[in-house]
Amino acid sequence: MSYAKTLIPPQPAPREVMKPMTPARMAGYILVALWALLGVLLVISIINGWDPEKFTRYGPRYLHGLWITLSLVFISVICGAILSLPLAVARMSKNRVLNALAYGYIYFFRGTPLLAQLFLVYYGLGIFRPQLEAVGIWWFFREAWYCGLFAMTINTAAYQAEILRGAIESVSHGQHEAAAALGIHKFIAFRKIILPQALIVALRPYGNEIILLIKGSAVVAIITVLDLMGETRYAFSRTFDYQTYLWAAIFYLTIVEALRHLWAWFERRLTRHLKR
């Protein structure tokens, strides 16, 4: 049996090898420096162009537009989620008619711009005014706010249906078999076993969809809805100050960032049992 007679003296840590300066790394440094310079210039511009009179005059209008934007997005997301569940079920159905109808709906509303859908609702449905008055729903489609809400709802329902369908299909088939082996009804198994697991998978895509809808909601300003972008256009038409749009961008960025942190908290909260 051999053994060491002397201990190896402690050695210093190896020197950190400097990475070579490649063209790609140099381009990255330049781009970061340009973005930092642009940020500094924007801050300086805001400070130099600060006008308390404009803030006092148009600040309440911005807050009103912010409320309109948030209410439109919140209601359309809830209504779209309700509509997406039967769409996702129909999309997975073995009935060819239901599957084809759901596929056609999702294909159309995911494949066309939200702006085009908004124009079709706001301008196109006026052709059917006599029929809509006959059934008593013309009061809904003659208002720009309701038309914007309807267009955003049917648009996000298509995206949410595909998100939900993918999440449901990601749940292991063994979950269905285990529920059937225990004698659990298919509807109860879907509601209490399959759907909760699918919603955890769909949580992050849902957050992305809400963020996209917040940014896409700005198109309703074109049909005279005074949301955040609508109020911004009004302020710019009176002042011709580009900072009106800069403040709108800051509002949108704040909303998105707050939602991102809130959604991350939800995800950590709902998936805490999966972390070890």
TrEMBL record:
<feature type="transmembrane region" description="Helical">
    <location>
        <begin position="137"/>
        <end position="158"/>
    </location>
</feature>
<dbReference type="GO" id="GO:0005886">
    <property type="term" value="C:plasma membrane"/>
</dbReference>
<keyword id="KW-0997">Cell inner membrane</keyword>
<keyword id="KW-0472">Membrane</keyword>
<feature type="transmembrane region" description="Helical">
    <location>
        <begin position="67"/>
        <end position="90"/>
    </location>
</feature>
<keyword id="KW-1133">Transmembrane helix</keyword>
<feature type="transmembrane region" description="Helical">
    <location>
        <begin position="102"/>
        <end position="125"/>
    </location>
</feature>
<dbReference type="InterPro" id="IPR000515">
    <property type="entry name" value="MetI-like"/>
</dbReference>
<comment type="similarity">
    <text>Belongs to the binding-protein-dependent transport system permease family. HisMQ subfamily.</text>
</comment>
<feature type="domain" description="ABC transmembrane type-1">
    <location>
        <begin position="66"/>
        <end position="263"/>
    </location>
</feature>
<dbReference type="InterPro" id="IPR035906">
    <property type="entry name" value="MetI-like_sf"/>
</dbReference>
<keyword id="KW-0813">Transport</keyword>
<protein>
    <submittedName>
        <fullName>ABC transporter permease</fullName>
    </submittedName>
</protein>
<feature type="transmembrane region" description="Helical">
    <location>
        <begin position="245"/>
        <end position="266"/>
    </location>
</feature>
<keyword id="KW-0812">Transmembrane</keyword>
<dbReference type="Pfam" id="PF00528">
    <property type="entry name" value="BPD_transp_1"/>
</dbReference>
<feature type="transmembrane region" description="Helical">
    <location>
        <begin position="26"/>
        <end position="47"/>
    </location>
</feature>
<dbReference type="InterPro" id="IPR043429">
    <property type="entry name" value="ArtM/GltK/GlnP/TcyL/YhdX-like"/>
</dbReference>
<keyword id="KW-1003">Cell membrane</keyword>
<dbReference type="InterPro" id="IPR010065">
    <property type="entry name" value="AA_ABC_transptr_permease_3TM"/>
</dbReference>
<feature type="transmembrane region" description="Helical">
    <location>
        <begin position="210"/>
        <end position="230"/>
    </location>
</feature>
